[in-house]
Design brief:
By secondary structure, the protein is α/β, with parallel strands linked by helices. The protein has helices at 12-22, 39-52, 69-79, 101-110, 116-133, 145-153, 166-181, 197-200, 224-238, 249-263, 302-317, 332-342, 354-371; strands spanning 4-8, 29-34, 59-63, 83-86, 138-141, 188-193, 208-213, 216-217, 268-273, 281-287, 291-294, 319-322, 328-330, 348-349. The strands form four sheets. A five-stranded parallel β-sheet has the order 3-2-1-4-5, sandwiched between helices. Strands 6-7-8 form a three-stranded antiparallel β-sheet. It is globular, with a radius of gyration of 20 Å.
Length: 374
């Protein structure tokens, strides 16, 4: 492979993605960028780890501040990355799960939607910088792409796609089927359409699925209720109350695969959230030339796939709708819960209000954490 990859945000997730890329043979130059100069130590650790495996990727650390859109645009003009992986966030999705279980689960019942400002703010600034730089690149967004990508699509700034989330649970289903039917995992193809809200709702939100083994349709053997029983133990473990940072390796693997498919122009069948600016998650074919192309098996239309994702996002993540200008309307339930738990009042979020809302919400979370000694 030739060309250059830039990873922005060397936090828990970005670090694992960087590790994956560093261990990918014949990868081109990698720019690891972060606001904190302390991130350079993590980048060096990745280089040392790769060297211990006999791999010597060309990795360079670059300080970048996404809050400075003009400065970011200049960095992009100089580096000209073929693909950018955005792994930035103001507050990680798992942070509220560190609260006492009763509080964490009440917030979880509202879904992740009200925390959109944490994910939208920096991604919006990055996409503005990309546009301002004038470079030709493709952006993979790791920051709540189910909602961030369709919001930015309304103003023609959508990344190519995201990853993670439902993709990791598809592997759980494939493993179960592999063991039950005694067939290799690689012989199992699952077309599943569902929003991040599936995770927040412990897979109680709606979804669509078609399942094939060696090209034979076995969907009737795995109706929605059975799929829920398969994945719910994992979803409840992943979305429950935490005492430490949850593992990110599986999520990083999903994003790495999608990034490499775009970078290598492989036209590989993958799974992505927010592809082509659509809400929720879809099976896709990824390439540099065409971006994300939605894959649809017989019996499922694109309209049905979009509709179930919107419903899944409404029930599971509190996203009532996205207006034509990108304004997000939250459900009454989500608004009520965040008002009661945090004193946060936000029925609608306009794109330009995201930064101030993120500051407000972070302050309220900090106060709540201090109340419980966190």
């Amino acid at each position: 492979m030739v060309g250059k990859v830039m990873i922005i945000g060397i936090g828990e997730l970005g670090y694992h993605i960087l590790q994956n890329l560093a261990h990918t043979p014949n990868i081109g130059k990698i720019i690891a960028a972060d606001y904190s100069p302390n991130a350079e130590g993590k980048v060096n650790l990745v280089i040392y780890t790769a060297a211990l495996r006999g791999l010597y990727p060309d990795i360079e650390f670059r300080r970048i501040d996404l809050n400075d859109v003009e400065g970011t645009a200049k960095v992009l003009e100089v580096e000209k990355p073929n693909v950018i992986c955005n792994a930035t966030v103001i507050q990680s999705w798992w942070a509220y799960h560190m609260l006492p279980e009763e509080i964490a689960m009440k917030l979880n019942s509202a879904g992740l939607g009200p925390q959109l400002p944490f994910h939208l703010t920096l991604t919006y600034k990055l996409m503005k910088a990309v546009k301002q730089s004038g470079i030709e690149t493709r952006v993979i967004n790791c920051s709540y792409s189910d909602v961030v990508n369709p919001v930015l699509a309304k103003i023609r700034l959508a990344p190519v796609c995201g990853g993670g989330n439902v993709d990791t649970y598809i592997q759980v289903i494939r493993q179960f089927i592999s063991r039950e039917l005694r067939v290799p995992m690689r012989s199992i193809t699952i077309y599943l359409y569902g929003h991040h809200g599936l995770l927040s709702s412990f897979f109680n939100a709606p979804f669509l699925a078609r399942i094939y083994v060696y090209d034979k349709d076995v969907t009737d053997l795995y109706p929605p209720d059975k799929i829920r029983r398969i994945v719910q133990p994992f979803a409840k473990a992943d979305m429950g109350a935490f005492v430490s940072v949850p593992p990110q390796e599986d999520i990083a693997a999903s994003f790495t695969r999608n990034l490499l498919a775009v970078y290598g122009n492989t036209y590989e069948s993958c799974y992505a959230h927010g592809p082509a600016g659509l809400p929720g998650g879809y099976p896709v074919r990824l390439s540099y030339e065409k971006g994300a192309e939605i894959l649809l098996p017989e019996g499922i239309t694109l309209e049905e796939a979009i509709k179930v994702n919107e419903e899944s996002g409404r029930i599971g993540d509190g996203i009532e709708k996205i207006k034509d200008d990108g304004t997000v309307v939250f459900t009454d339930k989500a608004v009520k819960i965040y008002r009661e738990v945090l004193g946060y009042e936000c029925e609608e979020l306009k794109i330009e209000e995201s930064e101030e809302r993120a500051k407000e919400l972070k302050t309220l979370f900090r106060r709540l954490g201090e109340k419980y000694g966190l």
